[in-house]
Amino acid sequence: MTSDLRVSLPGLELKNPIMPASGCFGFGQEYGRYYDLNLLGAFIIKAATKEPRLGNATPRVAETPSGMLNAIGLQNPGIEAIMAEKLPWLAERYPDLPIIANVAGNTEADYVAVCERISQAPNVHAIELNISCPNVAHGGLEFGTSPEAAATLTKACVAVSQVPVYVKLSPNVTDIRPIAKAVEAAGAAGFSLINTLVGMRIDPKTRQPILANQTGGLSGLAIKPVAIRLVHQVRSISNLPIIGMGGVATAGDALELMAAGANAIAVGTANFSEPFACPNIIKALPDELAKYDLHDFKTFAVNQEVL
Amino acid sequence: MTSDLRVSLPGLELKNPIMPASGCFGFGQEYGRYYDLNLLGAFIIKAATKEPRLGNATPRVAETPSGMLNAIGLQNPGIEAIMAEKLPWLAERYPDLPIIANVAGNTEADYVAVCERISQAPNVHAIELNISCPNVAHGGLEFGTSPEAAATLTKACVAVSQVPVYVKLSPNVTDIRPIAKAVEAAGAAGFSLINTLVGMRIDPKTRQPILANQTGGLSGLAIKPVAIRLVHQVRSISNLPIIGMGGVATAGDALELMAAGANAIAVGTANFSEPFACPNIIKALPDELAKYDLHDFKTFAVNQEVL
Amino acid sequence: MLPLEWLLTIQDQTEIAPGIFELRLSGDLAQEKVQSGQFVDVKIPSDALLLRRPFGIANVDAAHNTITLLYRTVGEGTQILSECSQGTELSVLGPLGGHGYPIDQLKPHQKALIIGGGTGIPPLHELSRQLVAKGVQVQHVFGFANQESIFYQAEFEKLGPTAYATNDGSYGYKGHVGLLLDEQFADAATTYDAIYACGPKGLLMAVDNRFSAHPNAYISLEERMACGVGACYACVTKLKVDPTIQLKICDDGPVFKTNEVLL
Amino acid sequence: MLPLEWLLTIQDQTEIAPGIFELRLSGDLAQEKVQSGQFVDVKIPSDALLLRRPFGIANVDAAHNTITLLYRTVGEGTQILSECSQGTELSVLGPLGGHGYPIDQLKPHQKALIIGGGTGIPPLHELSRQLVAKGVQVQHVFGFANQESIFYQAEFEKLGPTAYATNDGSYGYKGHVGLLLDEQFADAATTYDAIYACGPKGLLMAVDNRFSAHPNAYISLEERMACGVGACYACVTKLKVDPTIQLKICDDGPVFKTNEVLL
Ligand SMILES: Cc1cc2nc3c(=O)[nH]c(=O)nc-3n(C[C@H](O)[C@H](O)[C@H](O)COP(=O)(O)OP(=O)(O)OC[C@H]3O[C@@H](n4cnc5c(N)ncnc54)[C@H](O)[C@@H]3O)c2cc1C
Ligand SMILES: Cc1cc2nc3c(=O)[nH]c(=O)nc-3n(C[C@H](O)[C@H](O)[C@H](O)COP(=O)(O)OP(=O)(O)OC[C@H]3O[C@@H](n4cnc5c(N)ncnc54)[C@H](O)[C@@H]3O)c2cc1C
Ligand SMILES: Cc1cc2nc3c(=O)[nH]c(=O)nc-3n(C[C@H](O)[C@H](O)[C@H](O)COP(=O)(O)O)c2cc1C
Ligand SMILES: Cc1cc2nc3c(=O)[nH]c(=O)nc-3n(C[C@H](O)[C@H](O)[C@H](O)COP(=O)(O)O)c2cc1C
Ligand code: FES
Ligand code: FES
Hints:
A: 307 residues; alpha/beta; TIM Barrel; 8-stranded parallel sheet; 4-stranded antiparallel sheet; 9 helices; C: 263 residues; Elongation Factor Tu (Ef-tu), domain 3; Rossmann fold; 2 domains; 7-stranded antiparallel sheet; 7 helices; binds flavin-adenine dinucleotide; binds flavin mononucleotide; binds FE2/S2 (inorganic) cluster
């Protein structure tokens, strides 16, 4: 029996549920040298901000048990360069690859400006509103830790966006549920879960943090149980679709997160361990489903029917 | 040159900074069969509650990459049995081993009653106020996530306790600093950091959580970078001593957490991987210090002078 | 101080049935007094797996200084273990379990019924060996998924008669062990001086029910464990007579009398 | 599509100086065109280490289908790597680095100065080999902590004269490479047609300063990396003329012209 890996989310008719996570795959040009990105279900590009950003000083990454810390600091060429170069490059080579644009900013006005502009790109099918970056002084967590601030920002972004807006929530909160509810009420099309936890490594020799930014975002296998918990928790209070992520490295991990309530899966850190992680997972999904006598995702994520 | 591993904290003059973490070493009777507990710097016993507790249904543990989840649910024989049997057993065999009593409860009255009673045991040198257990319906996180609630509880417990009270904070909060500050102002002698993160694993076959309690506390190597960050963050706003924990398995891990600001180190999950983890770490500390031309902890943790 | 941790060397490892491995480990743990039903807790050689894996002791060979484990590959840990080559050193805790199968009460020529299913069977091999060494007559009743998954058939038949039940009827009785017991061992409670069981929950419940009044009937339980020595309270089970009393399977078990704990 | 990932087999591994290992890997990566200065990114066989480890390519031997890495054990990853036995298969990405050391501009009998320190030296071996194969005359100037830590001395001396500086003066010049350059290679900027360097930051800064105007002088940088292919922005460095322009060391480097980037 052949498998049907398709999943359908607002704005996103995907041939399979697997997509590179924002910030772990640039704008596709690098990994695009090594395999055909058309294999992917979708692709979440690196955060776009209004102005070009240089990000933080180096070192920007450090290793942790079954995980890593990053403090890239949203380096990106800015919305204009992304509109002029990055998105057209993708559109030309991969006209059928749905792009999800990760959007960040310092102020509401920044977010709104970028959402309005980037959602007009013909290959951008959805926005992932990044209100959860732990590595920048402004924006990021400020909007992501208060239900009111998150709702106000979401509403403003939804109003100007031509495509559905998924809000990427932070795991670094006491209770994610009021934030998720507020964001849903403000018009979000779905959630993206989870961004990185905040962590630190110290060099015992210098007794200083390894990262120039001191703290960084913890990602990779180590955070998978936290991602499962938060996806499960948000699923328990909302029927909106969830793009799940956090420590997915195998088809088994992907199914576990989908069993928790995710409708599609983003893969971040695993790309670094294994550059072919995404195509490998996509290839392994039919056999993984077959282990449980399944051939599609229909019975996953309670809300799948609704879509 | 010989090393001097002593550290000095309120209530605790320790021959070395290494102690088993609460809940990972019972009341000492089991590991006491296999090695001399007098090797330990101190020992934090399993949570004590007013009434005997049965804890949660099984399965109570699940594995995660470089970590584990537990949802024991504070099973313990209750304060009376602990006073009558567990503490005397320790006092008789290990009269010089400083015991730190982990205290939990449903209500402020519960906490106060247990603190008052247990702090009178002759071998209890300090209390670790557990306001951060993620695995119980009441108490635990309720007190641990609000600065006001944490302060009120701390104040009440400090008032009745014959020994210094260290407050064990939760990592599952948006910002730990106001909670730490409130607890300090309320009279805490120090902090204990960190309790477990909240996580979940799902059995892909049944699509149900593996743990009967659904969620569990994530511990082990995986959370080390989160522990380092929180110890560093609390150290940056307080000079109170910190008992650091979270993923310590080697002498190197212990030094890293001390470099972040911890004055002593508790070892939890590592006991399960390696039952001799604590004595092994103690034995390895002099060489680990020597790597950095050090022979004691004097230059660690900014507040060491103050004590 | 009791000994606890051993560095054992993989002597050899063989796949004796699909997904079932026989692992022979050499080292001085084999010189310890092992009660059948006791288990070991194996550190899997993977940096990311913090918890040890418990396995029953299927055989102790003091003369050759080896112990044998039999296990099924079910997840990551057993998969990695099955790929370890000869000569690999493993950290092993044991013998663990404060209570194995009691056999001292039995005399030569008395009769024991040994009931097992799937990967519950390994510790029953050491049990049967020890009973036979005492002169006890053993009868085995084992359940498997199908003929293909049967292992250690010759080893057990050497020790005593062995009846098989398979789910699909591909070998022996068709159906589960409970039905086989009803049909062919209806008088077991009076015929046998001791009853011993290990296997999946369903089998244990069947044995617990059928032999609840038998003065010498024992079942061995499994539960997810962390410490393996009684310190973490992960593996508890409740007493039947008073469910507010909890026992630890790793330390107060893994063997309990029938009718003793809530299944 | 470009090739990227290879399964290479450890042919042999030797500790050639205290804590310095020579690792020979066999597999078809050795058939790729490798520019000296390019590197590989090795998956360490440990489940808990997610990030690969970058190492310069010290030698390519297409005839024997092997490449050689030289590395120092500094932390957990290199420690585990050093314990891997012959026959172990490693997943290796490479050749990585969009820009290695340019040599096409040099003609036979022209002169190249190769400056290195410690574990920056490995890629300079492949560089020197390629230069000598072209008929370029090479002079090496290497810095080490002490005599004991010197490696590949015979290999380099076979290719060209080699001057040594050690911190403690136990071999060659006493002091760091910068001082040795000042004292014994004061005219280097005009004497040599090309300058190549790799090593610790201090050495690179010394070279960058001394040869900032040289039209053919190159340094190779190191930085903590995640992806190794240019996708994650972990390993950036700023352009000197315009620090708002950032280059990725893994992809736009690791070799840069002197005076090109901010050190
Ligand atoms: C006292 C005792 C004796 C045992 N004896 C044997 C034996 O002789 N032969 C045999 O094949 N199996 C035996 N088991 C079961 C064996 O421990 C598990 O199959 C094994 O731990 C699975 O590990 P894994 O990494 O392959 O599976 P995973 O599912 O990946 O393991 C994840 C976690 O769950 C735990 N776990 C999974 N299944 C079980 C289980 N059934 N019981 C306890 N913990 C589990 C693992 O130990 C690990 O901590 C015994 C279990 C116990 C408690
Ligand atoms: C392009 C390039 C080429 C290199 N070539 C060589 C070589 O030929 N020989 C050699 O001995 N070393 C070389 N290095 C350095 C080598 O990568 C590190 O020594 C190694 O990664 C340390 O790993 P570890 O696990 O032992 O150390 P740990 O400190 O435990 O590593 C922790 C993390 O930090 C990273 N890290 C630590 N030190 C460095 C470093 N100096 N540079 C980059 N990342 C680091 C590791 O990759 C890992 O991600 C090179 C580095 C780069 C960037
Ligand atoms: C190097 C790196 C860069 C990242 N950059 C971004 C980013 O620009 N925007 C964003 O929303 N998330 C960013 N993330 C977070 C990931 O998209 C993802 O949410 C997180 O890493 C968890 O998934 P993983 O465990 O699969 O990596 C980044 C993560 C890493 C490791
Ligand atoms: C099985 C288990 C039981 C625990 N029980 C308690 C407890 O009773 N009280 C408490 O404050 N913390 C408890 N903890 C948390 C630990 O004391 C410690 O804070 C945490 O596990 C982090 O340290 P580690 O990574 O070294 O395990 C428990 C942890 C585990 C794994
Ligand atoms: S496994 Fe820890 S008490 Fe049984
Ligand atoms: S390591 Fe990812 S961009 Fe260089």
